[in-house]
Amino acid sequence: MLEALQQSPALAIGTAGVFGLLVGSFLNVVIHRLPKMLEHEWAQQAAELRGEPTGPAARFNLVVPRSQCPSCGHPIGALENIPLVSWLLQRGRCRACNAAIPARYPIVEGSTALLSAVAVAQFGWSVAALGAVVLTCFLITLAFIDFDTQLLPDSMTLPLLWIGLAFNLWEVFAPLHAAVVGALAGYLSLWSLYWLFKLATGKEGMGYGDFKLFAALGAWFGWSTLPSIILLASVVGAVVGIALMIVARHGREVPIPFGPYLAGAGLLALYFRGPLASFYGLG
User: Fold this and answer.
1) Where would you tag: which of 24, 50, 81, 113 has the fewest CB atoms within 10 A of its CB?
2) What is the CA radius of gyration of the chain?
3) CA 130 and chain centroid, separation
4) Residues 265/232, Cβ–Cβ less than 8 Å
């Protein structure tokens, strides 16, 4: 099977797309449940600190309980959980109560499938393609979680950093020394900006999760790509922020998550890091 995938690019790309669909379905579960799992954990820790009895907590993780409609509690059967296909056949509605199923679910599944196929098309059936798929899955998940909750969980950003360094032990995406410097520079640069902004204004301009995500991107791509990533993320974030204030009357005091823009810039760097680094004279 592996030999057939290596000899047939079309088969390899198609297989990666199908795999991406399946993984994308799981990413939807992570996006929905991981913040709730953290909230439950924090609530339990707070109760323990207050000396309150917590009692046995109901099991809630990425596997238990079974997926169900948030509107009516209808359990999602196997035929209703086919990535992308089920949403299209059901016309984006629950079979039991006819409540709308957010378009986000097929968007996450379709995006993961498409980018997984692009990764194999770009890097071939290789370790680099595997790394690209892993990075893509993490960035999609983090972007949607941050968009929903303004959280970038340590349980995802820190493993992403170490996985990037692990791939670069063999210089898959960058030399190891550049990756280590990239992780340090990514964290310290945004950490420094955070404190400068806070000292100047008394407000927090970003969260610590942003530092860790930027450090993780530095660990994947090396320090030379960081300027292009932060510039792309900042420009897109500024444009979107201004558009929200004008079109949606989004108040200036309402925070806008920066993680989705860092994640998007990271995906661009994955496929265009050479030209981007050359543009800055760093490649």
Assistant:
1) 50
2) 21
3) 16
4) yes
